[in-house]
Amino acid sequence: MAKKDSKQNEEVMDENIKVEDTATDTKSEEQQTSSDSANNEVQQIKDKYLRLFSDFENYKKRTAKETLEIRRTASKDVMMSIIPVLDDFERARQNAAKDSNDESFSEGVQLVYDKLFKALQAKGLEMMKSTGEVFDSELHEAITKIPAPTPDLKGKVIDTIEFGYTLNDQIIRYAKVVVGE
Fold it and tell me: In terms of domains, do 143 and 57 share one?
C-alpha cells in the first residue's frame, strides 16, 4: 500500500508540476502580449509626436514666409500714392529740357527728385524702361498704335506716356506706352 500511496503522490506531484508549467506558460504569453501592445502603443505615440513636431515646423516656416512677404509688400499702398508725384517731377523735368520752354528745372529741385527716387529705390521701387523695347502685354499697357517711323520699330514701344514701376520685382503699375505698327 505504501507503494500505491507513493505512486499516487508522484502522479499528483507530476500533475501539479504540469499545471504550474501551463500557468507559467500562460503568464509568459500574457506578458509577451502586453509587452507587444505596449511597444505598439509607444510606437504610435512616437509617430504622433513626430507628425505633430513636423506640422509645427511647417507652421513656423509658413508664418515666417508670410511675415516676410507682408513686410515686402506693406509699402505698396504708400508707393502707389507717391508714384504720381514722381510722374509730375518727370514731366516737369522733360518740359524744362525742351528748347522752346523758358522755364528751367532748377538744380535744387533736381537734387530733391534724385534724393526721393533713391530713397524709394532703397525700399525696392524700380522704374521700368520701356521706350525702344519690344511690346510685352505683361509689362506694358498700349494706349495707342501709330505707324512705325522705321521698319525696325514695328512691334516696339515708340513712346512711354507713364512709366511702369515694380516693387521688389512685382509689377505695381504697368507702363502706358505707344506702340509702332
Answer: no
Residue where a domain stops, chosen among 74, 98, 130: 74
pLDDT tens digits, 134-155: 999 899 999 999 998 888 889 9
Q: Name the grid cell of 146.
A: 501709330
Do 28 and 84 belong to one domain? no
Same domain, 61 and 88: no
Residue 166: partners with Cβ closer than 8 Å, 6 or more residues away: 125, 126, 128, 172
Query: Under a CB-based contact definition with an 8 Å cutoff, are residues 143 and 99 in contact?
Result: no
Pairing assessment for the beta strands 164-167 and 170-173 based on DSSP bridges: antiparallel
Angle at 166 between CA 163 and CA 169, to 5 degrees: 150
Asked whether 155 and 181 are in contact (CB, 8 A), the reply is: yes
The number of distinct structural domains making up the chain is 2
70/153 same-domain check: no
H/E stretch holding 143: strand 140-146
Range of the domain at 171: 75-180
pLDDT tens, position by position, 112-134: 989 999 999 998 899 999 998 99
